[in-house]
Inverse folding.
């Protein structure tokens, strides 16, 4: 029995949960984090993946823009390997209301935003003529009369989340992945800990903590209910379409049929279009995209980028935002504000806090604020270090060419590891010296080598193939797991000592997870890939016979 | 008229159509490239529907029974459609027609160096690279001695290569466990080994077996690699050893013989998922067959805009950008399904060259949301992949009112609806028989 009394037990391994775990650990608190599925498997993993400067708040809430831009600069410093610059354009079309006036207004707006550019290492805006815009991105519609450019930063959210968890663990936190909180331990009106269940072994145990932090994202109302309290959110479903390649190297800010702002942008080696925003009351654990949502985005994209349907849409990514509750507003008009609920003050329940709402770009700031509240309650005087202390891979950018030569690996393979792991790259490459087969490529699309997979299993809490997908981008390329699913299952099986049934479950789990994102968009060129995929998994591997319903 | 018959597509269906029409007519094959046949595992499926999820497949090893089930229960299957023309015992007449066409075709392939073996009574169970197995009817001769149904109780060895597929204990045990679950006695012993070709000075950085197989086409390299394999296997205990499909591509016949000369039936190739060397061997043999039958192979893409009920000519767009109009008396469409772009979906589902309507069973399909034809479980049978053309008994595509669209257009292979080769495992059989019949029909 674990008799330790933790300072903080955190429920939820999204960016808020891991961000708070890191901050608390850096301040010397004893932390345990519990995630029922996998780190960044909920709203965090389904977001647009931008560390933006908060341009949309400029008109009503300039303070938020200032803080967002400042934090974008901090995140670039603590995770330099994970960020990539995305140059954006906001095109003005001749169909827009008074386009010539509109483009002037836009320019004025971005002139104001330029004031924050130095904070986040961005370039100031430029006004592009129609010709300049077409030269920059020939795919944009001829209806464009010009555009305003600005830039922001994209990030691998899965890695950001994993690195926050890793940092927390380095400072003593216990990260318990695939461990669900089934119950809160209470004494009268005080929460004293959590009863958790390992979702693989079924083993249940009690963890005692002075503070329990509910950071369960869209699942947070359920967790709040365990303490007999109520926190309302306005769950907003959002989908993104993902193309198999970069349709453009610049991001394009577009407007959908209802006037909502949507982004089309390069992300890593893909291109994403999103998002939608609709109230959602369905099953949070089983999300599917609808025809309407997909068509809404495609129509919007087609309006600005006429040939978009000829591109290969590889999959659709679906998530639910834990937006703060508000009545009488459109989904899109809801602020991405956050709130830290002190249940002692609000409901008379001691030792229990909830964090709701927010956005990825300000995760660090929110975590700091939440940790301040925790520290105040626990009487801890340490101050926040998360804006200056680099994340585990953020200490330096490794020399890819040199490492590739040294370890006899393809420089492109090493560059992808360096992107994901930064200063920890060599720790992974060293595994290829222990065992030469660790240098074998498992996922050919990305590519991902065996060493990185074993590293993720041994050091980053990966226990399923979707976990490996989030840590390494395995299976996210154009073949969507056709070639790597079974290979990855054997490696996991070997590392975790699984029997044939365990391996079957791994394969089934990943193919099912990929299918949710593929099936609703099975049109155009992706159909060819899927026929090949079924030819591999069903026709050739007989998985439909081997895997029971 | 430029040709009597123009066949579009050069996979199994297109080739069978062309060589059958060419017996009496002047024929050309137009293709934009290689398609699903070249990408295939090279295994020749006639029929072996696996049955329900998790259901033991042992009974379905019986090929005769599998064909009988189709004729009895699947009215839209091309097998059933073609058997309609027989007045007597449909089953016997259909299977004897299939055997005649098949045996003749396998003879032709053998004369091009790719020998297929199997039986018309029972399917085989062949292991594959992923540590599972496939039930199939005919295989290239370097694979058939590896029929797992005959190796139970024996000691089997899986040989791989470092840098390509690595065999390990987990993988070997997995195959053993799943097979025993499906009613087979276990192997006496299952072991594995991986060769390091680099250590022997052989450079192979590829992650699939195709480059290794291509390397084996060179007799000098083949000898070198064979001697490394000999050395390794001679030092190990086994009744049967499996190798990846690396026994050459264009010189398959020669390389395979080198192995049988030394190992006899103790060594065979396992299957690899697409794309694989055996698929390419098959495609190269088809190309040689076309040439031998005096058929013109034209590279390019076909389009058509025909308002009348007879197609007089099609437009050929060559890779160099030039185009030409080619006329013929009749046409065979053997363009495949999605892999090759025979069936497309941009805003509506349709056939790509002539814009023909497509069907699932008897139902015309136009609207675009794929989830209407898919279930939420990827291991279920997905009817979207049975989408294709509906035809009359002469394999002429029809519209939603069952009217023949073009009097002189025939269709064959996976561009057809009515079957789902991924699940019923009739892909090669259907391509072969509809191809041969479309060729005969088109020649009048």
């Amino acid at each position: 029995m674990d008799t330790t009394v933790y300072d903080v037990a955190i429920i939820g391994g999204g960016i808020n949960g891991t961000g708070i775990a890191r901050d608390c650990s850096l301040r010397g608190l004893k932390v345990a984090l519990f995630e029922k599925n996998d780190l960044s498997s909920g709203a965090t993993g389904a977001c647009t993946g931008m560390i933006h400067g908060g341009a949309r708040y400029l008109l009503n809430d300039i303070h938020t823009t200032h803080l967002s831009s400042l934090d974008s600069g901090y995140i670039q410093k603590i995770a330099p390997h994970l960020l990539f610059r995305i140059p954006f354009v906001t095109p003005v079309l001749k169909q827009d209301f008074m386009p010539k006036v509109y483009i002037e207004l836009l320019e004025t707006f971005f002139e104001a935003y330029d004031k924050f550019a130095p904070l986040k290492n961005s370039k100031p805006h430029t006004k592009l003529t129609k010709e300049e815009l077409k030269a920059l991105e020939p795919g944009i519609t001829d209806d464009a009369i010009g555009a305003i450019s600005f830039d922001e930063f994209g990030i691998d959210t899965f890695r950001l989340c994993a690195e926050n968890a890793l940092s927390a663990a380095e400072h003593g936190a216990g990260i318990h992945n695939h461990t669900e909180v089934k119950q809160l331990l209470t004494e009268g009106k005080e929460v004293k800990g959590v009863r958790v269940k390992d979702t693989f072994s079924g083993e249940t145990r009690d963890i005692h903590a002075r503070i329990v932090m509910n950071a369960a994202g869209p699942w947070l109302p359920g967790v709040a209910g365990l303490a007999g309290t109520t926190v309302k959110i306005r769950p907003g479903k959002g989908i993104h379409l993902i193309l198999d390649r970069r349709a453009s190297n610049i991001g394009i800010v577009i407007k959908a049929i209802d006037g909502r702002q949507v982004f089309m942008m390069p992300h890593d080696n893909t291109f994403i279009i999103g998002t939608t925003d609709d109230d959602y009351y369905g099953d949070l654990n089983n999300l599917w995209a609808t025809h309407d949502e997909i068509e809404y985005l495609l129509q919007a994209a087609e309006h600005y980028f006429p040939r978009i349907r000829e591109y290969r849409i590889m999959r659709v990514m679906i998530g639910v935002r834990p937006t703060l509750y508000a009545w009488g507003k459109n989904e899109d008009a809801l602020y991405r504000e956050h709130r830290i609920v002190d249940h002692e003050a609000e409901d008379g329940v001691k030792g229990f806090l909830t964090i709701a709402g927010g956005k990825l770009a300000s995760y660090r700031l929110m975590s700091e604020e939440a940790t301040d509240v925790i520290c105040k309650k626990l009487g801890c005087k340490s101050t926040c270090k998360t804006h200056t202390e680099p994340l585990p891979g953020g200490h330096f950018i490794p020399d890819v060419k040199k490492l590739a030569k040294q370890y006899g690996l393809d420089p492109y393979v090493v560059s992808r590891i360096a992107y994901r792991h930064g200063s920890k790259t060599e720790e992974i490459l060293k595994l290829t010296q222990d065992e030469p087969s660790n240098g074998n490529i498992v996922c050919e699309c990305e590519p991902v080598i065996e060493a990185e997979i074993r590293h993720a299993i041994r050091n980053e809490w990966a226990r399923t193939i979707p976990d490996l997908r989030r840590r390494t981008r395995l299976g996210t390329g154009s073949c969507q797991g056709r070639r790597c699913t079974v290979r990855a299952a054997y490696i996991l099986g070997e590392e975790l000592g699984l029997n044939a049934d365990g391996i079957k479950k791994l394969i089934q789990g990943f193919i099912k997870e990929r299918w949710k994102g593929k099936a609703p968009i099975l049109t155009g060129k992706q159909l060819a890939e899927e026929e090949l995929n079924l030819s591999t998994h069903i026709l050739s591997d007989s998985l439909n016979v081997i895997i029971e319903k | 008229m430029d040709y009597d018959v123009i066949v579009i597509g050069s996979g199994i269906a297109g080739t069978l159509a062309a060589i059958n029409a060419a017996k009496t007519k002047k024929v050309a094959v137009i293709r934009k490239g290689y398609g699903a046949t070249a990408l295939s595992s090279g295994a020749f499926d006639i029929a072996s529907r696996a049955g329900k999820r998790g259901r033991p497949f042992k009974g379905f090893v019986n090929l005769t029974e599998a064909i009988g089930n189709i004729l009895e229960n699947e009215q839209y299957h091309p097998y059933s459609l073609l058997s309609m023309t027989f007045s007597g015992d449909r089953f016997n007449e259909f299977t004897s027609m299939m055997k005649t066409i098949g045996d003749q075709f396998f003879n032709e392939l053998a004369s091009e160096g790719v020998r297929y073996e199997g039986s018309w009574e029972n399917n085989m169970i062949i292991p594959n690279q992923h540590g599972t197995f496939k039930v199939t009817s005919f295989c290239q001769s370097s694979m058939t001695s590896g029929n797992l149904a005959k190796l139970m109780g024996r000691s089997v060895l899986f040989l791989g290569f470092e840098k390509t597929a690595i065999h390990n204990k987990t993988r070997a045990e997995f195959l053993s466990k799943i097979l025993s679950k499906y009613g087979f006695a276990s192997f006496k012993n299952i072991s594995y080994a991986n060769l390091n070709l680099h250590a022997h000075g052989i450079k192979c950085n590829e992650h699939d077996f195709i480059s290794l197989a291509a390397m084996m086409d060179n007799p000098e390299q083949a000898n070198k690699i064979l001697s490394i394999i000999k050395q390794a296997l001679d030092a190990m205990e086994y009744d049967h050893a499996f190798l990846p499909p690396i026994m050459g591509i264009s010189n398959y016949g020669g390389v395979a013989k080198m192995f049988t000369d030394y190992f006899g039936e103790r060594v065979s190739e396992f299957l690899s998922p697409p794309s694989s060397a055996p698929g390419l061997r098959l495609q190269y043999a088809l190309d040689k067959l076309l040439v031998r039958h005096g058929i013109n192979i034209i590279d390019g893409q076909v389009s058509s805009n025909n308002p009348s009920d007879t197609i007089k000519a099609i437009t050929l767009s060559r890779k160099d950008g030039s185009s030409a109009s080619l006329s013929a008396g009749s046409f065979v469409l053997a363009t495949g399904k999605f892999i090759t772009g025979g069936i497309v979906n941009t805003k509506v589902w349709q056939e790509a060259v002539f814009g023909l309507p497509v069907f699932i069973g008897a139902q015309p399909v136009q609207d675009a949301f794929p989830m209407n034809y898919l279930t939420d479980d990827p291991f279920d049978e997905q009817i979207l992949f049975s989408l294709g053309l509906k035809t009359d008994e002469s394999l002429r595509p029809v519209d939603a009112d069952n009217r023949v669209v073009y009097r002189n257009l025939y269709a064959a292979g996976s561009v057809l609806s009515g079957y789902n080769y991924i699940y019923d495992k009739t892909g090669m059989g259907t391509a072969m028989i509809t191809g041969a019949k479309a060729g005969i029909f088109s020649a009048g």
Notes: Chain B touches chain A through 67 residues (CB under 8 Å). Chain B has two domains: 3-107+283-442, 144-270.
